[in-house]
Protein backbone atom coordinates (compact mmCIF):
# COMPACT_ATOMS: atom_id res chain seq x y z
CA UNK A 1 0.00 0.00 0.00
CA UNK A 2 2.79 2.41 0.82
CA UNK A 3 4.72 1.57 -2.34
CA UNK A 4 1.66 2.21 -4.50
CA UNK A 5 0.87 5.51 -2.78
CA UNK A 6 4.51 6.59 -2.96
CA UNK A 7 4.64 5.94 -6.67
CA UNK A 8 1.36 7.76 -7.21
CA UNK A 9 2.88 10.77 -5.44
CA UNK A 10 5.93 10.56 -7.73
CA UNK A 11 3.79 10.35 -10.87
CA UNK A 12 1.71 13.34 -9.86
CA UNK A 13 4.16 15.63 -8.05
CA UNK A 14 7.29 14.83 -10.09
CA UNK A 15 6.00 14.03 -13.59
CA UNK A 16 9.24 14.90 -15.37
CA UNK A 17 11.49 12.75 -13.24
CA UNK A 18 12.39 9.11 -13.48
CA UNK A 19 12.11 7.26 -10.19
CA UNK A 20 12.68 3.62 -9.30
CA UNK A 21 13.29 1.84 -6.06
CA UNK A 22 11.69 0.40 -2.98
CA UNK A 23 12.26 3.36 -0.68
CA UNK A 24 8.59 4.39 -0.91
CA UNK A 25 7.59 1.05 0.60
CA UNK A 26 10.32 1.26 3.24
CA UNK A 27 9.16 4.70 4.31
CA UNK A 28 5.66 3.30 4.57
CA UNK A 29 6.86 0.51 6.83
CA UNK A 30 8.62 3.05 9.05
CA UNK A 31 5.47 5.18 9.21
CA UNK A 32 3.22 2.22 9.99
CA UNK A 33 5.38 1.14 12.93
CA UNK A 34 5.45 4.73 14.23
CA UNK A 35 1.64 4.93 14.01
CA UNK A 36 1.29 1.59 15.78
CA UNK A 37 3.65 2.82 18.49
CA UNK A 38 0.95 5.23 19.63
CA UNK A 39 -2.04 2.93 19.08
CA UNK A 40 -1.02 -0.40 20.61
CA UNK A 41 -0.11 -1.66 24.05
CA UNK A 42 2.53 -3.99 22.65
CA UNK A 43 5.82 -3.10 24.33
CA UNK A 44 7.89 -4.36 21.39
CA UNK A 45 5.98 -2.20 18.88
CA UNK A 46 6.28 0.80 21.17
CA UNK A 47 10.06 0.41 21.46
CA UNK A 48 10.46 -0.27 17.75
CA UNK A 49 8.28 2.73 16.92
CA UNK A 50 10.40 4.94 19.16
CA UNK A 51 13.54 3.83 17.31
CA UNK A 52 11.90 4.28 13.92
CA UNK A 53 10.90 7.86 14.71
CA UNK A 54 14.53 8.99 14.73
CA UNK A 55 15.34 6.80 11.73
CA UNK A 56 12.42 8.34 9.87
CA UNK A 57 13.48 11.88 10.76
CA UNK A 58 17.05 11.33 9.52
CA UNK A 59 15.85 9.76 6.29
CA UNK A 60 13.36 12.55 5.69
CA UNK A 61 16.14 15.12 5.97
CA UNK A 62 18.20 13.08 3.51
CA UNK A 63 15.25 13.09 1.10
CA UNK A 64 16.05 16.71 0.29
CA UNK A 65 19.35 15.71 -1.33
CA UNK A 66 19.51 15.81 -5.14
CA UNK A 67 18.58 12.58 -6.87
CA UNK A 68 16.29 11.38 -4.09
CA UNK A 69 12.52 11.43 -4.53
CA UNK A 70 11.00 13.50 -1.76
CA UNK A 71 7.53 13.05 -3.28
CA UNK A 72 7.93 9.27 -3.26
CA UNK A 73 9.08 9.22 0.34
CA UNK A 74 6.22 11.44 1.50
CA UNK A 75 3.73 9.33 -0.43
CA UNK A 76 5.13 6.21 1.17
CA UNK A 77 4.70 7.81 4.58
CA UNK A 78 1.07 8.63 3.86
CA UNK A 79 0.35 5.16 2.47
CA UNK A 80 2.07 3.43 5.36
CA UNK A 81 0.33 5.50 8.01
CA UNK A 82 -3.08 4.82 6.47
CA UNK A 83 -2.20 1.16 5.97
CA UNK A 84 -1.35 0.79 9.66
CA UNK A 85 -4.85 1.94 10.52
CA UNK A 86 -6.58 -0.14 7.84
CA UNK A 87 -4.89 -3.49 8.40
CA UNK A 88 -5.24 -5.22 11.79
CA UNK A 89 -2.14 -6.21 13.74
CA UNK A 90 -1.94 -9.68 15.25
CA UNK A 91 -2.80 -9.43 18.93
CA UNK A 92 -3.89 -5.80 18.57
CA UNK A 93 -7.01 -6.20 16.46
CA UNK A 94 -8.87 -3.54 18.42
CA UNK A 95 -6.22 -0.81 18.35
CA UNK A 96 -8.44 1.05 15.89
CA UNK A 97 -12.22 0.97 15.69
CA UNK A 98 -14.07 -0.25 12.61
CA UNK A 99 -15.05 3.34 11.89
CA UNK A 100 -11.43 4.48 11.99
CA UNK A 101 -10.41 1.62 9.69
CA UNK A 102 -13.21 2.43 7.27
CA UNK A 103 -12.36 6.15 7.21
CA UNK A 104 -8.68 5.38 6.63
CA UNK A 105 -9.62 3.06 3.76
CA UNK A 106 -11.85 5.74 2.22
CA UNK A 107 -9.04 8.29 2.61
CA UNK A 108 -6.50 5.95 0.99
CA UNK A 109 -8.72 5.01 -1.95
CA UNK A 110 -9.95 8.59 -2.36
CA UNK A 111 -6.44 10.02 -2.40
CA UNK A 112 -5.30 7.35 -4.86
CA UNK A 113 -8.27 8.03 -7.14
CA UNK A 114 -7.72 11.80 -7.02
CA UNK A 115 -4.02 11.47 -7.84
CA UNK A 116 -4.73 9.12 -10.75
CA UNK A 117 -7.50 11.36 -12.08
CA UNK A 118 -5.42 14.54 -11.82
CA UNK A 119 -2.42 12.85 -13.44
CA UNK A 120 -4.47 11.93 -16.50
CA UNK A 121 -5.99 15.43 -16.67
CA UNK A 122 -2.56 17.03 -16.97
CA UNK A 123 -1.76 18.16 -20.53
CA UNK A 124 1.08 16.28 -22.20
CA UNK A 125 3.78 18.49 -23.71
Q: Mind sketching the topology for me?
A:
Blueprint: H1 2-13, H2 23-39, H3 43-62, H4 70-86, H5 98-121
Main location: membrane
Organism: Streptococcus cristatus
GO molecular function: serine-type endopeptidase activity
Mean pLDDT over the full residue set: 90
Q: How many structural domains in the coordinates?
A: 1
**First-last Cα distance:** 30 Å
The unreliable regions are none
The percentage helix is: over 70%
Based on Cα principal axes, name the global outline: flat
Order of helices and strands: HHHHH
Radius of gyration: 15 Å
Strand segment tally? 0
Strand content: under 5%
Tell me about the largest β-sheet: none
What is the SS-derived class? mainly alpha
The number of helical runs is 5
What does this structure look like?
One of its GO terms (molecular function) is serine-type endopeptidase activity. This is Rhomboid family protein. The structure is a single chain. This protein has 125 residues and is mostly helical. The chain has one domain (1-121). The chain has five helices and no strands. Helix 1 (2-13) packs across helix 2 (23-39), helix 2 (23-39) packs across helix 3 (43-62) and helix 4 (70-86) packs antiparallel against helix 5. The two termini are 30 Å apart.
Amino acid sequence: MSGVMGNLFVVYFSPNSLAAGASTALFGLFASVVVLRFATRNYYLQQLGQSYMSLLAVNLVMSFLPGISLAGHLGGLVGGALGAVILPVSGERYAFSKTQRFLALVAYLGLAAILIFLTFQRPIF
